[in-house]
Protein 1
Amino acid sequence: SLYVRKEGIFTTSLLDVSKYKNLRINFYYYPLKLEDHDAFVLEYSSDNSGSWMLVKRWTFGEDFSNDEWYHEDSLLLNSPTVSFAMVRFRCETSSRRDRVYIDDVKLEGLLM
């Protein structure tokens, strides 16, 4: 497990995705002590972290509640022109005690 908290970021290393025509990420998350307007996001970069593209934003009260495990399956890339990618989870919370635990992260792709 890993966790991200107030303005925290967890980023993967550079991944070779040149053999895949799409890439999905599956993971579980457990939010703890988040409040209204707190959120966390999943982003990817195909230019070695020069810029980040939003995959999805999860907002407390709209997408989840605290103290419960959730499973997520998201499409990251759907382009055969991307050779390398990085993935990151980023927290957008108001307090250092806010946390989102992330577990069992799997990247899966369809070969070209």
Protein 2
Amino acid sequence: LPSVSPPHLQNDPRFRALLAQTIQTALLRERTRPSPPCDTLSSCRRALSLERRRSLSLALRLAEYELLARYSSCSLHNDMEADEEARMNRIRRWVGRKEREMAEEKGRVVMELEREEE
């Protein structure tokens, strides 16, 4: 798989199949793309200019996709980390609440025992 695919999708068989199909379609489209005629020096220069622009466009699109993949991957990890932090905070609050309840219950039990002794 290309390095631009997000890590959470790399093991997904549907994603892998879709990616393979997309790559094959792009390769076929590129192989069947007609090249401009190159009969004279000026037509060759024009064709080279067109190919350079196309190459630059593809390089910019690839950079955009790489950034998007990196950002979405980081975003996913940040979201997962935030969810885990929230879960830990809920557990800490629950444990703190249970400790207070146990301390209150212990105080009540001690007071009842003292009353029964009197």
Protein 3
Amino acid sequence: TEPPEIYAEEPFRVHISGLNFEPSEDRMLLVDPEVDCGSTQTHFGGAACTQEGSYGEYLICGDGSRSIRVARDGSYKICFCDASASMMTSWDGQSNISVGQFDGAGQTSMGCSNAA
């Protein structure tokens, strides 16, 4: 995150590294840490990832002034809505993880209409 420490009511950005992103389509949401991403419409905010500096392998989500803030201090989970069916690198950098949707013809985008 930018800044590295987040405080209630203070704006911040989320930086995401991966592969084959589509900044104009991909989004992120903040949810309760106990919730599985995609399992609920309840969230604590979110943002588009269209900021200057975003590209196919790196996203900057939120504008740093208005789009992402939390009302109270606490723990949150960042959920990524991959409209473009991209690949993300695992936490240890050893493998790629598909986070998109597939069908018989290959990867397809399900969109992020319910996200931020």
Protein 4
Amino acid sequence: VEFKMNHVKCRFCGRAARPNVLMFGDWQVNCARIDAGQERLMAWEQGLPPDVRLVVVEVGAGTAVPSIRNLAERTAAEYAKSVLVRINLDQSEVPPSLGPRGIAVGGLGALDALSQIDALI
């Protein structure tokens, strides 16, 4: 699909909208939105009871920039009744410390993996 047909447009000027994704050496990212999202996540997590049953589903987070993997692993480790489901085509390993609470789904694309999980529920 050509870019002309496959992008979000700015609601104010109609030009191609820039995704709010932080890239290396990117000085134009809007950190206010990222910071606000981080604050919402922290507030949500602080409101969880210690014995909450969480399923942390991580999709496509690789090892080159492990920030998302670290967050998912740390969250699963913090809550004793949680499970980490890591979906990654070729980097699906989960930490042995999670034992049976770490589920690796590899060799599948995200949509296929999520569709198969959905069919099992």
